[in-house]
Amino acid sequence: MIKLEEIREIVKGEILINEPLAKYSTFKIGGPADIYIAPRDVDELLRLIQYLREEGIDFIILGNGSNVLISDEGFRGAVINLEAGLNFIKIEGEYVVAGAGVKLAKFVDFCIENGFRGVEMMAGIPGTLGGAIVMNAGAYSAEISDHLVDVDVIRDLNLVRLKKEECGFGYRTSNLTKDVVIQARFKFPPGDIEEMKRRRREILIKRNQAQPVNFPNVGSIFKNPPGNYAGKLIEEAGLKGIQIGGAQISEKHANFIINKGNATASDVLELIKLAQRKVYEKFGVKLELEVRLIGFEEEEIQDLI
Question: Which end of the chain is more exposed for a tag (fewer CB within 10 A), N or C?
């Protein structure tokens, strides 16, 4: 049971009860969380996590909500947001150090303005740095881990610094899923600022042309299978543009599902299951989810491949 007065003793940042999560999701979908908490700093975060674990209260870290599908029933437990308390970027000697709550767009802009090359390809990716590191976000053959040196995380209630090699980075994955990312250090090669700005503009134009940016979405729904593209397979399975309720497989890019105004999480989930089933039937390929599912009951997602 959540005891508000005890949490207020720990966290002086924002605390909201029965807070609708749709407004924290780029999908604009999702029911309420029992409690929404925004710690002001690492100390509050660490003490909060210790308290939640001692009390047996489930919790999740929610960044910019760009890679998640939140259940219509919401989340029974605590949702923790790090954007207020861990929203810093700085240069320390030869390193760029950034907090988990920094938006990727801000991180990209900071690096470019300071002449650091290597993250221009991330322009236009929504979300925060912490989430991007956990899923090893990437685009156009670049990944957030490419120039990463180490990551500070909360692991088993301890602050731990992990070298890049200890993080298990792979295609859209890492071994950090049970940790809470605090900050990361990067070492970038120098680059020409104007050239990087030009490249950033190119990437943003390319994204806007290829992706359904005019509708709420959470980016790619599925990981690209080895040697192929999820969007291509979904399109060739004849599903481009198909709609269930207020959700639609985008006519612009079939690996995107868009909210046409009144979509529910159930609508989106049905489209996900349909795409998996049809692609497997036609090509024998199992599409693996890239989007993270939050708050669903086991029986709701048991049909997923």
Answer: N
Q: Are strands 292-294 and 257-259 parallel, antiparallel or unpaired?
A: unpaired
The DSSP H or E segment spanning 124 is none
Annotated catalytic residue: which of 19, 145, 172, 174? 172
State the sign of the Cα–Cα–Cα–Cα dihedral 39, 43, 47, 53. Answer: positive
Q: In what order do the strands lie in the sheet with 180-186?
A: 89-92, 95-99, 180-186, 148-155, 158-163
Judge whether 145 counts as a catalytic residue: no
| Residues paired with 163 in a beta bridge | 150
For each of the chain's 305 residues, which pLDDT tens digit applies?
Answer: 789 999 999 999 999 999 999 999 999 999 999 999 999 999 999 999 999 999 999 999 998 899 999 999 999 999 999 999 999 999 999 999 999 999 999 999 999 999 999 999 999 988 999 999 999 999 888 999 999 999 999 999 999 999 999 999 999 999 999 999 999 999 999 999 999 999 999 999 999 999 999 999 999 999 999 999 999 999 999 999 999 999 999 999 999 999 998 999 999 999 999 999 999 999 999 999 999 999 999 888 887 86
Q: Is 71 a catalytic residue?
A: no
Mark whether 141 is an active-site residue.
Answer: no
Q: Report the alpha-carbon distance of residue 217 to residue 127 in Å, rounded.
A: 12
